[in-house]
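Intended use. Records like the one below are meant for learning the mapping from a protein sequence to its folded structure. Do not use them to infer anything beyond what is encoded.
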Amino acid sequence: MKKFADRLFRLYSGHEKNSILTSIRHAFVFLVPVFMIGACALTLQYFPVTVVREFIANAGGGIIYEFLNIMYNSTYGFAAVYLVLALSHYEALPLNLHPDVRFFATITSTICYFAFLGPDVYCGRVGLMNYTKMANVFSAMLIALVATHMFSGLYRLFNRHRSDRTSSFVRVLHSIFPALTCLLIFTVLSWLISCIPGICNFNDLIIYLLSRPFDSIGATYFGGLLIMLLESVLWLFGIHGGNVFDSLLTSETGAFAFGGGQIMTKSFIDTFALMGGCGTTVCLLLALILFSRDRKKKKLCRLAGIPLLFNINELLVFGIPVVLNPIYAIPFILTPLVSYSVAYLATAMGLVPQIVNASVQWTTPIIISGYQATGSVAGSLLQVVLLAIGVAIYAPFVLLDNLVAKENEARYIDHLTDVCRECEARGEAYHSDGERLAMRSFENDITAKLYSDIIHDRINLRYQPQVRNERIIAAEALLRFRFDEDGRYLYPPLVVGIACNADLFDPLSRAIVRRALADLRTLQTHDKDFSLAVNLRLDLIMDDAFRRWLVGEVKGAGVTPYTFGVEITEDAQLSDSVDCTAAFDELKRAEIEIMMDDFSMGHTSISILQKNYFNYIKIDGNLIKQLDNERSRSIVASIVKLGNELNFSVIAEYVETAAQRDMLNDMGCHTFQGYLYYKDMPADELAALLDSQPAKQTKA
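Structure written out for the chain above:
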């Protein structure tokens, strides 16, 4: 089993790296709102309670039903078209095209899809919506992928000697011949397909080829089993398997027709093998609810649960998505086969009556449908047994999905951390430009989680104590953010960079301040003079609205005066040309202390110290790590001496050895922060340390 899981994991990892499959998955997820609206409308149209269904159909002369029909047809009725737009958009993203050209590629793909519907549609011999709805998903995917890459290649070919640094109008002109060529190719192919007798277009050709061998199949156990197998396989490729075989199963004269005395009928399949739709997806829903640790899938289950109870499963199937998903392919195929086989055996043995009511509404929930179809409680009990079997089949794959998601999460976090460090090394603000779609999507997931933590007040801080005379006197508040509650902390500059790019840095900073003040208030019940400092960017301090808010928060917190401070990182590029006097004086009047973090290794001129902005200076940790170097010792000693002469205190960060501490003491620096004493810790552990401290000495 472990070898099988490892192989499947490697297969899925390859699937994750495949840009085409990634685009397909994102396109389906992007269309979840469309599926949700359409599923709700369809559920109401075919509500399994006769009284409700008749009311909807007849009330106001049928106006409610017509309204719901419009909702359904405008969503599900054009699902294939929406998929072309979404998939073409995502597939064009990594093709290194100008945004205007990517948009033209999407439009061209849509035009090609309509051209591929064939001449019969435009001559009025068949209805247009027969070929724009959910049943045409496979052809929509294929056309979107082919047309997008065809347009991209032709655009580069026709414009290889032209610059893209021009106006949008010129790029429109450059797109005419690539778009025309794509359209001509798809039009010719469509016409050739339509020349086949009885075939309207490509979608008809697929269905014809797949269903033809079953025209004369008998209503045997193996006949039904083969149909179950092929329906599920077709669904995995985006082909509506039910549409392929519905005409065969619903024929009034065929071998599968109800009333022939055989066990295998369409009603039998719907009642026992396709509970919740193809793939027996009600079992998948329960397995996800019970075993999935993916927040997005849990949320999808809440949205898809009600439609799926009425056997409308597109929202779940395309939301995960199951289409082209190697993890869920096996249980999606296996569960209907096992359910069908168990139900067939139970019926053949006489444990459950044969279907006696073929008119049970297809939207009837399980348990109820089992009783109505067989006229016996045994039908409902069989559905319960099949439900348990199906959940047991899906469960290991849901757990494997959790494992794969965890591995992918770790890999994505490592990659984005490397990207962030590379940006830092280049002196740039963090950005993920040029990263593949899956990476940018994961970054969006981080943004969503960060936003959720901010608005629900779940920002997590840890505190690294600062020690003077072997006693904890203060601490620095450090942001610690996890994407997953059981995962590791993200690199803080990465979190800050993502927050800045998403315009979340202001609300994040406010959340940090609120959390730090609340913790400080608690910590001061253990030591009333204990101090905390948080890191804030200079641009926030210079913002009048934020500064007024900060002053109000500190005053309202009820903490001891001059025990809450802000640390300004030196990369703020303070200079003589930036006058911060008024802003800093306002903070000082509010009894807020001001510190400069990482002094000596950034961009700030040493002349800034003469302005008396800061109560504390924190020496850059890189200098402390190099105290065995004579030049580094001289720089640190000079900063400490300046502090004594200019009336600011000096704190040494990254103190990790007793030798470093002794050298700093000899220089006159007596306040330390680093692993020699403590790592960062939660507020409750810090409170316990404060209680266990030696008696307080006179504050220097």
